[in-house]
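Q: For a teaching session next week I want to show students how multiple molecules come together into a single three-dimensional assembly. I've collected the sequence lines for a complex. Could you give me the predicted structure tokens for the whole thing so I can convert them for display?
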Amino acid sequence: MSKIEDLPLWAAILISALLVTGSGLALIGSIGLLRFKTFYERVHAPTLGTTMGLFTILAASMLYFSLTQTRAVVHEVLIGIFVTTTTPVTFMLLVQATLYRDRFEGSDPLSGLSAEQPRSGTPDDANSSATPRKTTGS
Amino acid sequence: MSGLILTTALTLSKIFLTLAMAAVAFRILRGPRAQDRVIGMDALYVNAMLLLLVFGIGSGTTLYFEVALAIGLLGFVTTVAMAKFLMRGEVIE
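A: Of course. Below is the structure for the complete assembly, covering every listed component.
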């Protein structure tokens, strides 16, 4: 029961633009997942597909089924809400696990990123650390 | 005319999503460590879900939508279980 020919022209153009945009974003995200160098860069790439790509394809699906069945079809909002809420949770858990594994193996990826190391060479610290050394020495 | 535009866009987006799934599958095969493979699997099921939605638009039935919803639910559970396994070494403690 294909009702594709009954669609008005503006709806066809709009649905086509949404579909091509969404799948193109998913393709760009997947190529980014393939081409980035480290894991922490790779985490960012697929979220192109899970946010904007998913939204545009869901909007195209909602528009198409609302126009062909002549009533509003909003089932797709379910998928949108679910994927939007679960993707950050998934990626945060995964990055947490990866950070744990990296630290367990002795290479901390965050060690070079801290902007200000707390300075340990203040005069008070030097005095307080020097005096016990004298007392223990004598 | 509108049928031609829509059919072309459907074919194009199916090709795009298939290429995306191929790229992600290549990352799963080549991924240097386990977490790369897990995130590749996550991206793979999202792309499969999008492809099923596009199939649903092409066929005109809403059956594909329910399959896409099931894939979304199961993929979330799978990836969380994988992340927990990478973190702790077991899933259910």
